[in-house]
């Protein structure tokens, strides 16, 4: 008796949910991937494979291929594969196409998204979700190149933000000061904030992939804002810095996070420009921070970071700087954004 296929939406969702790895270390999987790729590269070189063949083969090696580390990523991927399943159903006339048979519709789906006018960033996200759920690799499909300079979300407040200005005012104000992600901001409590007199505050939060993060605030203006919300929470006898009502909106809190990072970068630059002693102080902080978190510091702190390509052109068209000081960048990365690479911080936040 022939077994009836599940609905494709449910089958893809089940595949994704089996990949749950919340709280596991992405860094460990990245190290494992790098080790596997190094060994494979040596073998391929000995086989006299071309550089192009080697590059493509290495892109098919990923220790985290069947892992999803963030609930937010899982939620987005489930939504994206449902969209793909609807597309397959429109082509086949049935919602019960098998996962294996759905693979041949991946490239037509990408072509459809291009015609539909989806941005390269959106297309890449949807393709990543579909490939994850079907066991395929993004590199095997023709898709538009995603460039950070083309991503406009977070560059300016979204159109809808003006409708949220009153309801989201408190959340936007607080996040401009502490720069958390939406889910982190809604969860942060007075017990997560530690004070060092009036000089600084440390905010503990659980971020993407279950990472335990610490946000370090020293700017007097931002400390004043944090203090206000902290005291309001105590006065109202509640734990969270923001009420549920203050978080019920869809304002662009990521834009506030980016602006917080920009503010901090400019503050640090103001302190270290022309002040070698202060710059050395920040350098020591970064070296110690990376060592404390067992992260290799591979960047030369004395070498400026220069944007290139589309990012450089975009900055020049705005009359903005395309040269960044790695000391200030990595300080922002470590204390506000919880990243460990200059390119991530600059391209996702500082040029917004």
Oligomer category: single chain
| Radius of gyration using CA atoms only | 23 Å
Count the beta strands.
5
Category by helix and strand content: mainly alpha
How far apart the termini lie comes to 58 Å
Major sheet: size, sense and barrel closure?
A: 3 strands, antiparallel
Strand order of the largest sheet: 1-2-3
Describe the structure.
- By secondary structure, the protein is mainly alpha-helical.
- The chain folds into three domains: 8-150, no CATH class; 153-168 and 251-352, no CATH class; 181-248, no CATH class.
- The longest helix is centred in the first third of the chain and has 22 residues, at 71-92.
- It is built from 16 helices and five strands.
- The protein has a three-stranded antiparallel β-sheet with strand order 1-2-3. Strands 4-5 form a two-stranded antiparallel sheet.
- Helix 12 (253-272) crosses helix 15 (326-337).
- The protein has helices spanning 8-17, 26-46, 51-59, 71-92, 99-102, 106-116, 120-134, 161-164, 169-178, 182-187, 220-235, 253-272, 276-292, 309-317, 326-337, 342-350, and strands at residues 193-196, 200-206, 212-217, 305-306, 323-324.
- The chain is 55% helix and 6% strand.
How are the secondary structure elements laid out?
Elements: H1 8-17, H2 26-46, H3 51-59, H4 71-92, H5 99-102, H6 106-116, H7 120-134, H8 161-164, H9 169-178, H10 182-187, E1 193-196, E2 200-206, E3 212-217, H11 220-235, H12 253-272, H13 276-292, E4 305-306, H14 309-317, E5 323-324, H15 326-337, H16 342-350
Antiparallel strand pairs: 1-2, 2-3, 4-5
């Amino acid at each position: 008796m022939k077994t009836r296929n599940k609905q494709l939406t449910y089958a893809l969702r089940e595949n994704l949910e089996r990949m749950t790895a919340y709280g596991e270390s992405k860094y460990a999987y990245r190290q494992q991937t790098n080790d596997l790729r190094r060994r494979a590269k040596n073998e391929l070189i000995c086989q006299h494979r071309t550089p192009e063949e080697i590059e493509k083969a290495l892109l098919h090696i990923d220790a985290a291929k069947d892992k999803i580390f963030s609930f937010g990523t899982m939620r987005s991927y489930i939504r994206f594969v449902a969209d793909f399943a609807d597309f397959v159903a429109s082509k086949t006339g049935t919602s019960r196409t098998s996962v294996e048979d759905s693979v041949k519709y991946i490239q037509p789906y990408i072509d459809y998204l291009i015609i539909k006018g989806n941005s390269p960033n959106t297309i890449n996200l949807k393709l990543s979700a579909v490939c994850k759920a079907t066991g395929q690799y993004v590199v095997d499909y023709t898709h538009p190149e995603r460039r950070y300079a083309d991503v406009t979300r977070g560059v300016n407040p979204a159109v809808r933000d003006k409708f949220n200005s009153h309801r989201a005012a408190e959340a936007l104000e607080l996040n401009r000061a502490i720069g958390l992600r939406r889910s982190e901001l809604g969860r942060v409590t007075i017990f997560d904030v530690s004070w060092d007199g009036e000089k600084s505050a440390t905010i503990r939060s659980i971020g993407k992939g279950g990472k335990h993060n610490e946000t370090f605030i020293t700017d007097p203006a931002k400390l004043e804002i944090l203090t206000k919300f902290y005291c309001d929470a105590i006065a109202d006898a509640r734990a969270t810095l923001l009420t549920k009502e203050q978080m019920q909106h869809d304002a662009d809190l990521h834009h506030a996070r980016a602006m917080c990072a920009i503010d901090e970068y400019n503050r640090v630059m103001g302190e270290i420009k022309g002040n070698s002693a202060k710059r050395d102080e920040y350098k020591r902080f970064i070296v110690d921070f990376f060592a404390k978190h067992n992260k290799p510091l591979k960047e030369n702190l004395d070498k400026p970071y220069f944007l290139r390509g589309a990012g450089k052109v975009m900055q020049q068209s705005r009359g903005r700087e395309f040269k960044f000081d790695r000391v200030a960048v990595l300080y922002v990365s470590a204390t506000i954004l919880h990243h460990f690479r200059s390119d991530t911080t600059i391209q996702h936040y500082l040029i917004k």
